[in-house]
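Exercise 3.2. Students should predict the tertiary structure of the chain below and write it as structure tokens, then compare their answer with the key that follows.

Predict this chain's 3D structure.
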Amino acid sequence: MVSVKSQLTLQEFLALPEEDITYELVDGEAKPKMAPKRYHSRLTGTIYTLLSQGLQNRGEVGIEWAVTLKRNGRDWVPVPDLLYVSYSRLPSEVIENEACPVPPDLVIEIISPDQTFGQMSAKATDYLDAGVLRVWVVDAKAKTVTIFYPDARPQTKFSADILEDSLLEGLQITAEQIFQQAGIP
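Answer key:
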């Protein structure tokens, strides 16, 4: 585990060595991210596959790719479970090995056993305030996907509800499809 001073600049945080532990920069501190469990891993893989197939050649889907954003006027580097950034926001020619330098079109957070929906809702609001266009909060226990928008109330999708969105034009997946393909009982 990296030993770090309590207040880091963005540059100091991004220069930390890579380890087995993933950190997020929150209020100047490097905070460890929870290690995913089996269902979390299955959901991540399934959603990655569905998005990659459905949004092929329109952008990049990333797993645990750090993003440089602002939160309450301070540097913030969250590490969402998944993200999608269109080539209009981050051209395909940009191939730097760094944190995503622009707010993604879509961020997906999967609720871990030690997290609450309320905590993830607050984080979704922070993402939207930082310029992310959509946030999906996936709840394996409830088998729901809640979609957060910058200009509308969140919508919770379950069962055969389609997660269609003008932002992700042509993507036709259901909440049920995600959980079935991930093998979540």
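Discussion points: Helices lie at 10-14, 38-54, 117-129, 175-181. The first strand starts at residue 23 and ends at 26.
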